[in-house]
Amino acid sequence: MTLRMLYFARLRERFGQAEECLAFDGATVADLLGALRARGDAWAEELAAGRSFRVAVNQELATPDTRLADRAEVAIFPPVTGG
Amino acid sequence: MTLRMLYFARLRERFGQAEECLAFDGATVADLLGALRARGDAWAEELAAGRSFRVAVNQELATPDTRLADRAEVAIFPPVTGG
Amino acid sequence: MKIRVQTEAFDLGAEIDALRAGRLDVGAVASFVGYARDINDGSDVRAMTLEHYPGMTEKALGTLADEAAARWTLIDATVVHRVGRLLPGDPIVLVAVASRHRGDAFAACAFIMDALKTRAPFWKKEETPAGERWVEARASDDAAAARWADKVGRPD
Amino acid sequence: MKIRVQTEAFDLGAEIDALRAGRLDVGAVASFVGYARDINDGSDVRAMTLEHYPGMTEKALGTLADEAAARWTLIDATVVHRVGRLLPGDPIVLVAVASRHRGDAFAACAFIMDALKTRAPFWKKEETPAGERWVEARASDDAAAARWADKVGRPD
Q1: For chain C, which residues score pLDDT lower than 70?
Q2: Per residue in B6-43, pLDDT tens?
């Protein structure tokens, strides 16, 4: 499947990109995070277990077991700090 | 002693006056209420035990055992309904 | 702390601008405005007249604001209450509280309103199709005020 | 429910006039405005830039407002959040809630702010004398939001 990936705030800066199209073979958010960590460097560091970040799928907050479908919009970002 | 009496809202209307100077021989708010009840009619009715009203002495909420001094300003009024 | 009793309307935006003026440490302003409604206790209300106890009113409002300032970390607060004849839709009361963080502002604003409803000497008389009537005090206002007794921070 | 994300400043008085327009059953408007402060976590802050997630932001704010409307008896609510570069003293966020009675307005306004702080995708970057820094999420905001879970009415 193909995912539209979005990165925000500190993670956007650390990953050096705001968005990308990603070909992905897994099923869940957990699988996707594994694939991204395998890129190493900032990806492995920022998405390591125990780091604080959020994942949204199609603009709704998701959990590791959230299932992904083709053409999903997946965003990864730090805990929010508005208001 | 002489007291400056003030009446507000429904009690002002029921007593037919907004203020009066009152010569008073007792010591406390309870004594004063007894003297006013002895006037009968609306006074006896509105100030009866169990009726809901408030007494302020020198612009502070008072209780039956609050002591009165000469020239005190004593206000009697219904529970408040502002805001 | 600014406390005013007045017949004129007030301007919420202008009051809050004045409350914050020159204070760049204000991170939060919680405010409340109470309005005259066109219906109360099941009757149409055409107008209301607010009576108060001049002298005691200002003293009572000042006491409430001081109690809030002792209990929460506040920068400043404004309380304005109107008296005289008001029509449905007219603003009656304004409470605005400025603080660094929102928890203090929210709690102090709610506390001042709850305390005002039971301790500030104002009385409302409504004009209804059946004639004039004095508004009765509500048990729910006593309950709201009692929530703050012996509590730190926000009420239940 | 009005939800807006914008770069321009907002006018609290005008927003509340619009919120109440034509509704004479509104007895209470509780509102909150958050401002950019000139100091945070012990450092001078010269400016901040707010980034958000267009699309999700509006959806998340709408969800919070709907949750508040399901939980309390509300007449209407307005949420406005700014993005872009802001200076100390600039207003950042407005939440205003109109209802018949004050308890609902206060509770819903506080709930929406607490929920926004943890669930709406905004991020602040501050300009300090030591350079730029992303603001870290606060544990106190998680605690404030958690107060509302499985509760009816006001939080502890």
Answers
A1: 150-156
A2: 999 999 999 999 999 999 999 999 999 999 999 999 99
Q: Is the pTM of this model over 0.90?
A: yes
- Closest Cα in chain C, distance from residue D38 (Å): 6
Task: For chain A, positions 40-69, list CB contacts with chain D under 8 A.
Answer: 52, 56, 59-61
Could you say which of B56, B59, B80 has the minimum Cβ distance to residue C137? Answer: B80
Q: Reduced to 3 states, what is the DSSP secondary structure of residue B53?
A: coil
The answer to whether the Cβ–Cβ distance between A82 and D113 falls below 8 Å is no
CA dist A56 and A45 (Å) reads 19
Q: Cβ C56–B10 below 8 Å, yes or no? A: no
Dist. CA A25–CA C24, nearest whole Å: 52
Domain A2-62 has what CATH class? Answer: alpha beta
C101: left (phi over 0), alpha (psi -120 to 50) or beta: beta
CA distance D114 to D34: 12
Residues C40 and C135: beta-carbon distance below 8 Å: yes
| CB spacing of C53 vs B79 below 8 angstroms | no
Strand ranges (E), chain B = 2-7, 19-23, 54-57, 60-61, 73-77
For D89, counting Cβ atoms within 10 Å of its Cβ (0-12 exposed, 13-18 middle, 19+ buried), the class is middle
Q: D42: pLDDT confidence band, cut at 50, 70 and 90?
A: confident
Q: Which residue has the tokens 């209802």?
A: D99
Q: Where are the alpha helices (DSSP H) in C21-123?
A: 56-71, 102-119
Report helix, strand or coil for C115.
helix
With contact defined as beta carbons under 8 Å apart, do B15 and B43 qualify? Answer: yes
Task: Report whether C23 contacts D39 (CB < 8 A).
Answer: no
The two three-digit tokens of residue B32, written as one number: 């004063």
pLDDT, mean of residues D7-21: 97
Can you give the residue ranges of every domain in chain B? Answer: 2-62
pLDDT in tens, A43-69: 999 999 999 999 999 999 999 999 999
Token pair for C7: 């017949």
pLDDT at C151: 58
> Residues D80, D32: contact at Cβ < 8 Å?
no
As a whole number, mean pLDDT of residues D22-27 equals 96
Nearest CA in chain D to A59: D56
Instruction: Give the three-state DSSP class for A22.
Output: strand
A52/D121 Cβ within 8 A: no
- Contact present, D140 and D61 (Cβ < 8 Å): no
- Please state at what angle helix D102-119 crosses helix D56-71, rounded to 10 degrees: 150
The reported pLDDT for the residue numbered C156 is: 45
